[in-house]
Amino acid sequence: MDTVAKAMTGPVEYFRAQLEYELTPAGLKRLLDAPTHNVCVVDVRDAAMFDSGHIPGARNVPLESLPASFHSLPKDKLIVAYCSDLSCGMSAQAALELAQKGFRVQRLLGGFTEWSRHGFAVESSPVPETSQAW
Q1: Please, what's the b/e burial string for 61-95 (b: 16 or more CB within 10 A of its CB; e: otherwise)?
Q2: Catalytic site positions
Q3: Could you tell me the pTM of the whole model?
Q4: CATH for the 23-117 domain, from 3.40.50.300, 1.10.3720.10, 3.40.50.1360, 3.40.250.10
């Protein structure tokens, strides 16, 4: 392989992998809107962030508890992991850990910030009522 071909292999493989393993918010929306979608959306942010707003139907599996949750995640579905935004690396870490365990996985580019910026539906977890005796 000549020097030019070697230099081109790295970038070509990198961008090919990005296209294969990263999903845009619009791409995820299309998958979720399909009549019979085969997707499990996993929010790897902490519970407080998840409760304040998340993609409808997403499961909250904070990154630090991901290994303990492997057994409860579906092996027969595409798992789409997301975190806060472009600067957050948790979804990439989660995707790597899931892929190493044999899951089919992609990560959502831009995370929750990009999803909501596109105007796609967002849901919040209800705040539990507490009763206090005064």
Answers
A1: bbbeebeeeeeebeeeebbbbbbbeeebebbebbb
A2: 83
A3: 0.84
A4: 3.40.250.10
Distance CA 35, CA 59 (A): 20
What distance in Å separates the CA atoms of residue 9 and residue 38, rounded to the nearest whole number?
33
pLDDT digits (tens, 9 = 90+) for 20-44: 899 999 999 999 999 888 999 999 9
pLDDT digits (tens, 9 = 90+) for 60-100: 999 999 999 999 999 999 999 999 998 999 999 999 999 99
